[in-house]
Design a protein that fits this description.
Length: 321
């Protein structure tokens, strides 16, 4: 079994022998060569497949640290506002720790699969009449009242856990890539990658790919109007690239059909930035932040439809072209 993230990176994390390790076997995710995409875009592309985490997204890296520290510090419950993935991750790690999770999602704006996942994991899910930014403000205020520990990326332990993706990539490649490319929603992951790069003393750059229509993008995970970490993203020196929904969908299909990796639409924003010619560097790692099964409804809507035919070999051979 791969070691829990906290054990693998113990010296690099703010944990002690007293910290209870709340784990589901996160981290140590695949780093995949992308031969066909490399050919198409004329550089060496790698995919860091974060859909391989226990709840299907990179959030688990930060959540194992945030919930372990919350339990160490005596938390009775955790709270978050979420576009879906933080919700599922918080619910899973809270259940693992035996404490309740309160999850606020903007009503009607989150993938149904993520809400179902979060409900199955035993969290209390409140659909807030408002957008993500308003839900986050409410979560912050409730955390300030002291009843719940906030496990959004404003919790500094989240960044500590998430920076470990950079450690894994560099360890596996044997050196730093020229560029790390990640989607940009609130910017917590950009600031985590910047911290990893700083700690390892690397010269690598970051490209953060955001939706050009932040408030209405079909990539619901990054449907965030006001990124809370915008100033950290600026200070990190990340190169912010805006990509359209059409470009995201094209990139999303390419990742599936050309490399066999079914991610969620938001995760394809980085490849869309590559396709737009906005990513410098010869060796480039694209982090695919979440699994495609996280947003089945969008796949059902946009994937090539199946063709119906009779159950005879001739009819099937003909229909298959
Ligand atoms: C798949 O779950 O904000 O720039 O509440 O789920 O660190 O915000 C999710 C964000 C990229 C953006 N890819 O990362 C939430 C939430 C996926 C995501 C992002 C998210 P940040």
């Amino acid at each position: 079994m791969v070691p829990p993230l906290i054990e693998r990176f113990r010296p690099q994390l703010p944990v002690s022998a007293e910290t209870p390790v709340v784990t589901l076997g996160e981290g140590s995710t695949p780093l995949l060569r992308a031969p066909r995409l490399s050919e198409r875009y004329g550089r060496e592309l790698w995919l860091k497949w974060e859909g391989g985490n226990p709840t299907g997204s990179y959030k688990d890296r930060g959540m194992t640290v945030a919930v372990s520290k919350a339990v160490e510090e005596g938390a009775q419950a955790v709270i978050c506002a979420s576009t879906g993935n933080t919700a599922a991750s918080a619910a899973a790690y809270a259940a693992r720790a035996g404490i309740p999770a309160l999850v606020l999602v903007p009503v009607g704006a989150v993938s149904g699969a993520k809400v179902a996942q979060t409900r199955m994991l035993g969290a209390t899910v409140l659909e807030v009449r408002g957008d993500f930014d308003e839900a986050l403000s409410a979560a912050l205020e409730l955390a300030r009242r002291g009843t719940h520990v906030l496990v959004n990326s404003l919790n500094p332990y989240r960044r500590e856990g998430q920076k470990t993706a950079v450690y894994e990539i560099v360890e596996e490649l044997g050196s730093a890539p020229d560029t790390f490319v990640i989607p940009y929603g609130g910017g917590g992951n950009t600031s985590a990658y910047a911290q990893g790069i700083r700690e390892l003393g690397l010269g690598a750059g970051i490209v953060s790919a955001e939706a050009s229509d932040r408030r209405h993008t079909l990539a619901s995970a990054i449907r965030i109007g006001e990124p809370v970490h915008a100033s950290a993203v600026r200070e990190a020196g990340a190169h912010v690239v805006a990509v359209s929904d059409d470009a995201i969908v094209d990139a999303w299909r390419e990742l599936g059909a050309l490399e066999g990796v079914f991610c969620e639409p938001s995760s394809a924003a980085g490849l869309a930035a590559v396709a737009a010619g906005s990513v410098p560097g010869e060796r480039v790692v694209l982090t695919l932040t979440g699994h495609g099964l996280k947003d089945v409804a969008t796949a059902e809507r946009l994937a090539p439809p199946p063709v119906q035919c009779d159950a005879s070999p001739d009819a099937i051979a003909e229909a298959a072209g």
